[in-house]
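User: For my dataset I need records formatted as: sequence, then structure tokens, nothing else. Please produce one.
Assistant:
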Amino acid sequence: MAHRRSSKLTLAFTAVAFFAWLILPAYVRVIAIASEGDPLAPLEARYQKATTLQANFLERYSENGTQVRVEAGKAYFLRPGRMRWEYEKPEKSVFLVDGKYVWFYAPDDHTATRMPAKKSDDWRTPIAFLTTGMKLARICSELGPARDAKPSKAGNEVYRCVLRAAEAGKDSAAQRVLFEISPQSELARIVIPQEAGVQIEFEFKDWEWNPALAKTLFQFEPPPGTVIVNGLLPEAPGMRQ
């Protein structure tokens, strides 16, 4: 139970970085990044045109190259800066960003963890472009084909993004995110290395563009009897039990 809860806090820690980004200086050293001929330009253009998005996702969690957990569900995105991840298998839970707070709710625990979105001091934000108009050029200090990375599906292309956090003196090995893009300019997969050999991978399928999503979907209403716990997320995501 605690290990599963740690996985959701990992996602929260990664996603909440988007809000920290908004209050940071806009300076970025771009080495190899988007131009008019950049193959990622169609990807950015397609997602920037959408106000709402939804997709099915598969999350794989591994430690030192060994897969230890697989979870699945549906993700919803609303601009600006709101998202909801509904985990359906193997157990139900919800991770939600409402613009002010980050929530993780586990029905079996009758507990909701809440933290202010601005509390995170981490800059990792590999999914920021899904909820804002932010370009990958502002997320990555380096971006280019990952020729040593095999795509999960033939025809897809894999790109390696060196996140700006690496320039802030953090572990550079944990800042090299992989983006896998389909021929239809859809995000197929994100691979996010963490510290101590931990890796989180999200595979996306069945993207829907501008679906009708109620704003209440991105608001958390604690069910009766839910205990709300206030606090910061783990400093080392996925490693705290």
